[in-house]
Specification:
CATH architecture of the largest domain: 3-Layer(aba) Sandwich
Signal peptide: 1-29
Shape: globular
Largest sheet: 7 strands, mixed
InterPro entries: Bact_solute-bd_prot1
Helix content: 40-55%
Biased composition (Polar residues): 37-47
Number of strands: 13
Region (Disordered): 26-52
Number of helices: 19
Distance between the termini: 9 Å
CATH class of the largest domain: Alpha Beta
Strand content: 15-25%
Low-confidence stretches: 1-29, 39-46
Structural class: alpha+beta
Keywords: Signal
């Protein structure tokens, strides 16, 4: 995939020559110029000595009004100023509605000047396709900054160039309600060997229709339809770039996920989920669900007992994985890139580095994308995470196993590649037809495969 040519920059310069009529006039002009040059040189030297070469430079960060006024954002720009001397202003854009094109992307395509954008890798792919992102490799090289090592290979790359670096990861976990386990007289599960097979077995024991208790809950997020295939190592694309949904792993994953509600009845069925009877936050608000598998943002929500009051203790485990496969969890990252319209790319890179290396230290329960040593991770858990769950009796080991296990494979939760957004919509539509009994599994997977290939062909 080739990038479009960068935005052209042009500048018109007018030169004015002034005749100086007296030697005194020349002498005064030279002295003023000399003093000015000396002052500029001194300021440059002071910036270099202070370790803040971009001190006083202003960069524009594209955010919605709500995000720009958030306390965490305010603290982040103060930290950027403290560490780098860089001033941050906001380029405010409204949130795009469902089906609308990203308003920041629209503004960049129109040539609006911005220095920092943050999105998920899937969203940034749209920015890349529109040729509005600046590669970061040369900027990193100039600073002798090894992005892949610092972030454990989680940088966002397109055509072997780096276009964004991650600040935090949203890693899926298993959340469980200790009260329901206690009432069922079932021991709390442990992280070691926590497979989907053990998850289902445990959910069956917790399930109690008479008391309206569900053993399991997973929403109708499309990622759930194929997550088992992802964890088994299946790729959504073949080597030639065509769709790979005729791989049996995808049919097995589809069948397995919908069987949890439709056949095993350990969680609400497809119709209940589609109707909104059980919204995505049912685990947090109902108190009648034993286990819930979803993204790390749920932990942040559950730490807020004003918004989600509860009379039960929370337990956490890593995301289950298929028996016989390596331990893995789905994840999505929040990443930062530099638009081509930026006039301060080096300063923007310095500000982004500061965000990505330090955002987690602000105390909002973020899981950093940068690789932490075991001691660093434990210190962070003790200082920032455990205090948020002081009534749940969670331990350092609980968080280490769920979020900081460097031996575990962390896999992208979304399909990424040619026509990925369209394929996600196709998967959602066809999955619902299968889950609601309107299509056979064979016909469903054939439709996904055929429609995905059509979308790929149209996108090429």
């Amino acid at each position: 995939m080739k990038l479009r040519s960068a935005f052209k920059r042009g500048a018109a310069f007018s030169l004015a020559a002034a005749m100086v009529l007296s030697t005194a006039g020349c002498s005064q002009t030279d002295e003023t110029k000399s003093n000015g040059d000396s002052k500029a040189a001194t300021e440059t030297a002071q910036k270099a000595d202070s370790g803040k070469p971009y001190d006083g430079v202003t960069v524009k960060w594209a955010l919605t009004d709500n995000a720009a006024t958030a306390t965490e954002t305010k603290e982040m720009i103060e930290l950027i100023k403290e560490k780098t001397g860089i001033n941050v202003e906001f380029f405010i854009t409204p949130t795009s509605k469902a089906g609308e094109m990203d308003k920041v992307l629209v503004s960049l395509m129109a040539g609006e000047e911005m220095d920092i954008v943050n999105r998920t890798p899937l969203q940034l792919e749209e920015f890349y396709k529109a040729a509005v992102l600046e590669p970061m490799d040369e900027l990193a090289k100039a600073e002798n900054y090894d992005m892949d090592t610092v972030y454990g290979g989680q940088t966002v790359k397109f055509d072997n160039q780096t276009y964004a670096i991650p600040a935090e990861k949203d890693i899926w976990l298993t959340y469980y309600n200790k009260k329901i386990f206690d009432e069922a007289n079932i021991p709390y599960p442990t992280a070691e060997g926590w497979t989907w097979e053990k998850y289902v077995e445990t959910a069956k024991k917790l399930n109690n229709p008479e008391k309206n208790v569900w053993g399991s809950f997973m929403s109708d997020d499309v990622a759930c339809n194929y997550m088992l295939a992802t964890q088994k190592g299946a790729s959504p694309y073949k080597e030639d770039g065509s769709a790979n949904f005729d791989d049996p792993a995808y049919a097995d994953a589809m069948k397995w996920f919908f069987s949890l509600g439709n056949e095993l009845k350990i969680q609400p069925n497809c119709l209940d989920l589609a109707s909104g009877t059980y919204p995505y936050n049912s685990f947090m608000v109902n108190g009648n669900i034993g286990m819930y598998v979803y993204g790390g943002w749920v932990a942040s929500a559950l730490s807020d007992k004003v918004k989600y009051p509860r009379d039960w203790e929370l337990g956490i485990l890593p995301m289950p994985y298929p028996e016989g496969s390596e331990a893995s969890s789905l994840t999505i990252t929040n990443c930062y890139g530099i638009p081509k319209t930026s006039k301060n790319k080096a300063a923007a890179f310095e500000a982004i580095r500061t965000i990505c290396e330090n955002k987690y230290t602000l105390g909002y329960g973020r899981v950093p994308a940068k690789i932490l040593t075991e001691d660093e991770a434990k210190a962070y858990i003790e200082s920032s995470l455990l205090p948020k769950f002081k009534d749940d009796n969670l331990t350092v080991e609980d968080f280490m196993a769920g979020w900081f296990d460097n031996s575990r494979a962390y896999l992208g939760e979304k399909i990424m590649g040619t026509a990925d957004t369209t394929i996600g919509q196709i998967y959602t539509e066809e999955g619902q037809l299968y889950g609601q009994g309107q299509k056979s599994l064979e016909d469903t997977m054939k439709s996904i495969q055929d429609r995905a290939n059509e979308a790929i062909k149209e996108a090429q």
